[in-house]
Amino acid sequence: MRIDPLGMNRTPTRRRGFGLGGIRWIVLVGFAIYAAVSWFGSKQTDPLTGEDARYGATAEEEVMLGAQAFDQVLGEAQAQGALLPADTQVSRQIREIAQRLVSRVPQVTADLAQANGQQAPTAHQNFQWDVAVIQSDQANAFCLPGGKMAVYTGLIPVAQTQDAMAVVMGHEIAHALLRHGSQRMAQQKLVQMGQLAAGVALGGMDPGQQQAVMAALGAGAQYGFILPYGRNHETQADRVGLMLAAAACYNPREAIPLWERMSQLGGGQRPPEFASTHPDPANRIQNLQSLMPQAEAFYAKYCPGAPAAQAAY
After folding, report:
1. Half-sphere CA count of 33, side-chain side, radius 13 A
2. Is there a contact between 82 and 134 (Cβ–Cβ < 8 Å)?
3. Taking the model in full, what pTM does it have?
4. Which candidate, 53, 56, 44, places its Cα nearest to that of 182?
């Protein structure tokens, strides 16, 4: 065989490229880097808790989104004849509780921020506070980002007292002050990026296998990230809301029997804590009991001359 010294007669070797699999992994790595930079790079310290927080919207955007959602809720309630007039006794009582709580927001947020070595937050200064009462069997209330609130009449027989109602409303206001809606937006963005990246990485799989893997990844995100995130938000709102109610001169000790009653709703049946966005009632009550000395200190500071907060009987 004649050997060409220049190698011209050799069988050409095949150059190795990335191929679809290589491209997928490059995209996946790119998604991971972007998600990590987006998540960790946006980290801030929440002045009210001293914990890390990440926000998916500006404070101004939150106010706008909250106002839009509130208009929709009121429109639906009005169409159903469920929106109570502002001059009813129940509406006046709920509005008075809301006004007392809101009046203490500057002092309580400043005190909590100082305790965490942070500057007092200012986002609440642009809140558009309002409250409505809606006729419904739901034992519920909410405060949207930006300060728009609603209380459902089904909560009244469960609360029983104005002190307990103030604890619930303080809790809901705390969600808005802590900007939990914006934090959930940042969390959802991260989860969506992860799902998109997983979809790219699994693009060459059999559809059945792909569905099974995506389901497993979804369950992992739900139980390992989303639900614990929600439970932490509830615990934060319990603390800030309790301090707010105490500073507004409502008896913080009413929180214990309140949550005991709340735990009995629906026959006391609920999913285990790991499968819920809310803490187990027993754990919640234990946490609230541990917060009582701090809440009583707020009560004593802002309610001079008032009787000491006593345990409910």
Report:
1. 6
2. yes
3. 0.77
4. 56
State how far the Cα of 42 lies from the Cα of 310, in Å rounded to an integer.
43
Asked if residues 143 and 67 have their Cβ atoms less than 8 Å apart, the reply is no
User: Tens digits of per-residue pLDDT, 290-304?
Assistant: 999 999 999 999 999
- Kindly report, residue by residue over 160-214, the tens digit of the pLDDT: 999 999 999 999 999 999 999 888 888 777 666 555 555 555 555 555 544 544 4
Letter for the amino acid at 188? Q
The edge-to-edge listing of strands for the beta sheet with 141-143 is 130-134, 148-152, 141-143
Q: Which residue, among 61, 28, 38, has the nearest Cα to 187 in the 3D structure?
A: 38
Tokens of 122: 């200012």
User: What gap in Å lies between CA 49 and CA 302, rounded to an integer?
Assistant: 21
How far is 259 from 281, CA to CA, in rounded Å? Answer: 7
Cα dihedral sign, 82-156-144-270: negative
Structure tokens at 114: 């100082």
Among 253, 235, 237, residue whose Cα is nearest residue 294: 253
Reference 118, options 186, 178, 60; nearest CA is 178
CA distances from 182 to 97, 169, 177, 186 (A): 26, 20, 11, 6
